[in-house]
Amino acid sequence: MTTETENENKATEEKDEIKIKDLEPRMKNLVTTFKVVSIGEPREVNSRHSYETHRVADATVGDETGVVLVPLWNESIEEMVIGKTYRLEDGFTGLFRGTLQLKIGRNSKVTDAKHEIETVNNEVNMSAESHQTPRDRGYYQPRRTSRSYGGYRSYRRRDSDRYSRHDSSGRRRW
Predict the structure, then answer these.
(1) What's 32's DSSP letter?
(2) What's the sign of the alpha-carbon dihedral 81, 75, 33, 109?
(3) Which of 60, 49, 47 is nearest to 99 (CA)?
(4) I want to staple 65 with a disulfide (CB 3.0 to 4.6 A). Which of 21, 57, 59, 114 is the partner?
(5) What is the three-class DSSP state of 3?
């Protein structure tokens, strides 16, 4: 009989690892192995939600296919060691100012890799490429108006009519 943790370990090992050069914006549940090439200077940023101050540093990580930026927050800056190889499970990618980033989320696991990456291909920088299309307004798609109600204004008018005492012909309802 296998225990539950052994089954989880087998399930995560069975996931296909993705190489750095194959990363695209908005990917989820990534499993990849990377080597830390460099870590930038930490800077302080303020949270929009809780107004707390956090430290952020951009780390350049890569494998034999390319390199990408990873934002490191607070304690994870000291936990990452330059030249060491790590395995990321349940990571995701995103865009920040049009550049691709590999992100470590709350539910992500970063562990020491079983196999070291000897060489890193610095020539293919996935973060240097622009992944923003001319139609995009940043990370999210443009907001669309509803066509069935004629857009925002008619929808708003319909809501106000719902609470008025008059119907569409001007007669009093109650």
Answers:
(1) E
(2) positive
(3) 60
(4) 21
(5) coil
Cα(115)–Cα(139) distance, integer angstroms: 34
Cβ pair 86, 102 in contact under 8 A? no
d(CA 136, CA 119): 35
What is d(CA 145, CA 142) in angstroms, rounded to the nearest whole number? 10
> Helix/strand/coil (H, E, C) string of 56-119?
EEEEEEECCCCEEEEEEECCHHHHCCCCCEEEEEEEEEEEECCEEEEECCCCCEEEECCCCCCC
CATH of the domain spanning 4-112:
2.40.50.140
Please state, in angstroms and rounded to a whole number, the distance separating the CA atoms of residues 11 and 4.
Answer: 11
CB atoms within 10 A of CB 58: 18
> Which pLDDT value is given to residue 68?
95
Residues of the chain with pLDDT under 50: 1, 11-12, 154-156
Residue with tokens 């107004």: 51
Helix H or strand E segment including 153: helix 152-162
Q: What is the pLDDT of residue 47?
A: 87
Domain extent listing, the chain: 4-112
Place of tokens 């995103």: 94
Q: In this predicted structure, what is the pLDDT of residue 8?
A: 56
DSSP secondary structure letter of residue 151: S
